[in-house]
Amino acid sequence: MVRNLVIFGTRPEAIKMAPLINAFKNKEGYETKVCVTAQHREMLDQVLEFFDIIPDYDLDLMRPNQSLYTLTASIITELQVVLEDFTPDFVYVHGDTTTSMAASLASFYAGARVCHVEAGLRTFDKRSPFPEELNRQLTSKVADLHFAPTPLAKDNLLREGINPDSIFVTGNTVIDALLYSVDRVQSFSNDDIDVLEPILDSEKKIILVTGHRRENHGKGFLNICSALKEIANTHNNVQIIYPVHLNPNVQKPVYELLSGLDNIKLIAPLSYPAFVWLMNKSYLIITDSGGIQEEAPSLGKPVLVMRDTTERPEAVKTGTVLLVGTDTDKIILEASKLLLDSAYYKQMSSLENPYGDGSSSEKIIDIIKRYRN
Ligand code: UD1
Ligand code: UDP
């Protein structure tokens, strides 16, 4: 029996690891356990519930406004117990969070083979996104198997001297999760959707907003809020729906600056299926999220990305995603263009998705089969 341990801590990691965990559970010859660091708590738990995942180990590490120092140290320390208890053959980590970086290092100490899912994304600017770019570069150094979502991600790894035989292009499991959810959300009632539906104005175009990046904390978020306020004031045919990330550095400026405005609705983070449902209903998405840049092209929704660089240039190339930074005027200009120019809007609403076709988890498992002995 091959022992797999899947370790993750935040909402996006949970969404992207869930299809792999559930696919492994149907395969014979593997004992697959899940360890959550719970770097996120509420935002993580809603995903676990939707995908029917009950963690075998829950480190429960989230603290209000946690620092990177204590988070990193406690992940490594607490994982020692788990790794020594389960002694996994393979550990799976995802992407670029502090959990991914610290868990890969701890798993290396434990002698497990480290498999990096969503490997090879790069901006090549170690301070942007912060600390994710360095987290993923460090994780690549530690990993034994690298599951790159696209050929470009594979090329990035080759440029860093990673053994070509250990890199596999698999697509991104985010699309596995999205396709599963788009189907499932049709047939199940969802509390968040029940609450949301009555506040949506069917006469208005929905602009969906999310944001959380650390490098945008402070001035970046002030600029973003000014832009949203101006868009809401200028275009009375829009409704801005903003599920606000629970990070206090985001909550404070957003609620202070945007509360009480007629066509801006600030709401709590949505459960994943409700968020997918809302993305589908939206006209335009404004975000600094990584995962949403990958999901939106499947739904044909234009995305303005409030960042100066992206490790996901594929969708910029196909035209669905445009980088606008946190420059207030640029956000207003580009959103207005998409609201007013229907030919331009149509051109950006491409349905082409460069990130996968929903079969990534199965591809990863097929590769693991070759390494199991
Ligand atoms: C983290 C990841 C980031 C990822 C993002 C996804 C790091 C350093 N950052 O950023 O890479 O893109 O998650 O959202 O790994 N909080 C809650 N409840 C929750 C989640 C967060 O209250 O369920 C609050 C807490 O006060 C917490 C703070 O948000 O201390 C920050 O959480 P943290 O995971 O450190 O950073 P994120 O900005 O969420
Ligand atoms: N998401 C969600 N509820 C929300 C906002 C986003 O479930 O209210 C999902 C979204 O569909 C995507 C993921 O969370 O899959 C993105 O998470 P986030 O932007 O926090 O992290 P990033 O992708 O930037 O690491």
Characteristic terms for this protein:
373 residues; alpha/beta; Rossmann fold; 2 domains; seven-stranded parallel β-sheet; six-stranded parallel β-sheet; 16 helices; 16% strand; globular; binds uridine-diphosphate-N-acetylglucosamine; binds uridine-5'-diphosphate
Note down, in words, how this protein is organized.
The structure is a single chain. Helix 10 links the parallel strand 9 and strand 10 (264-267). By secondary structure, the chain is an alpha/beta fold. The protein has helices at 11-25, 42-50, 68-86, 98-109, 132-142, 151-159, 173-187, 191-196, 219-234, 248-258, 272-281, 291-299, 313-318, 328-340, 342-348, 360-371; strands spanning 2-8, 30-36, 57-58, 90-94, 113-117, 145-148, 167-169, 205-210, 238-243, 264-267, 284-287, 303-305, 321-323. The termini are close together. The longest helix has 19 residues, at 68-86. The strands form 2 sheets. It has a 7-stranded parallel sheet with strand order 3-2-1-4-5-6-7, with helices on both faces. A 6-stranded parallel sheet has the order 10-9-8-11-12-13, with helices on both faces. The radius of gyration is 20 Å and the shape is globular. Uridine-diphosphate-N-acetylglucosamine is lined by residues 10-12, 39-44, 62-66, 68, 96-98, 131-132, 212, 246-248.
